[in-house]
Amino acid sequence: MSDLEDPLYKDWVRSALSLKYLKEGIYSFVDQFAKQHHSNLLLSYIKGTGSPATSCTECTSENLMPDHPRHRCIQKFRSKCFCNNPVGRRKCPNNFCSRFYDLIVIAHDERNPLWINTDPRKWYSDHWEIAKCYLSTTGYSEHGTAADTDAAGLLSIIINNIEIRNYVCSIDNIRKVRDIRNDIMHSKSFQVDQSSLYQYIEQMILVLQDPKILVTDVAAQNAVLKLEKLKRDQIFISVEDAYEMRRHALKAGEDGVKKIEKTKDEAIQQMETKRKEIHDDLDSRFDQRLLEQNKEIKAETIRMQTEKNEFESRYQTAVNEIETKGKQITDNIDAYFESRVNDHENKVDDQSKEISGCLKL
Ligand SMILES: [Zn+2]
Ligand SMILES: [Zn+2]
């Protein structure tokens, strides 16, 4: 029995094929408005600077510094912004890419562009390199056109770009189809039951018949016809189709794993940076504390020395006073005794004289 004789597997292949038709129905729409968005960004540049943009091919994801100041980062997660790691970065020498970087951030619905897929050297000349900033996943660096981008990528660009999302009435429908795409492409069993397949196709048709623009778009309506045929089982599914869909799904799985690994690497990198920051902060606080303590010890030593000097000076003064007092007392005592002795001697003399007088009588 061929794999395609298993209805669950066959319906998985049909659901994967429905994504291919969806992509065929929306890529020219996304391309058209991505082109318009690029022109509008160039106009915003003129409004902001007062002069037309100059072409630049010197800036890369490694050397470009955004225009916004680091302490007022405009990106949702500063850790993902070029300003987060300033080493080796400088503002655009042609006064273009740094300003354009900020305009790209502002045009993202969550101010959270993904820079890994884009090449800033092409920002001036290639509208698709700007559109790629609004993708949600990695793996599109080599995909240079809308036609070369899968349904998931195109849906992300519609959801994330504030200008392009204005050309659809229901972003909610787009989000639902993006979730459907993930269910199909990340299916481990490669099985889909028929009612799910029908539901997937109906949701895709809702997107392709969005009343704002797509309902009148020829490519989108051709895709609707193909999807309806697919639903009615009027499209022959070959072994080659099955092989191609499976290959796409496996590739999507690989990209998912790569993305997880990259996210893990980024998380480790962020933790390392944070750890270093904390370490440096602790070191600097410790140094500061040590400095303060040294200052305190020095001040205390000076204070104690001053106190000691004062004490010694007071002690010396007291000793001097005591010595002076003692000398005065000694002098007084000496003078007193001397006067007493004199008095006594005088009295003895007087008495002697009196006695001599009496004897003469
Ligand atoms: Zn920033
Ligand atoms: Zn530049």
Give a brief rundown of this model:
The termini are far apart.
Give the ligands present: zinc ion
Shape: rod-shaped
Helix and strand sequence: HHHHHHHH
Q: What structural class is derived from the secondary structure elements?
A: mainly alpha
Low-confidence parts: none
**Nearest-integer average pLDDT:** 90
Quaternary structure type: single chain
- Ends apart, CA distance between termini: 182 Å
Number of helices: 8
Estimate what percentage of residues fall within beta strands: under 5%
What is the tally of beta strands?
0
Rg result: 47 Å
Biggest sheet: strands, sense, closure?
none
Q: What percent of residues adopt helix (DSSP H or I)?
A: 55-70%
Structural notes for this entry:
This protein is mainly α and 361 residues long. The chain has a domain at 3-237. Helices cover 65% and strands 0% of the residues. The chain is built from eight helices and no strands. Helix 1 runs parallel beside helix 4 (151-160) and helix 6 packs antiparallel against helix 7 (218-231). The chain is rod-shaped and about 185 Å long. The model has no long low-confidence stretch (mean pLDDT 90). It binds zinc ion (2 copies). The site of one zinc ion has 7 residues, from loops.
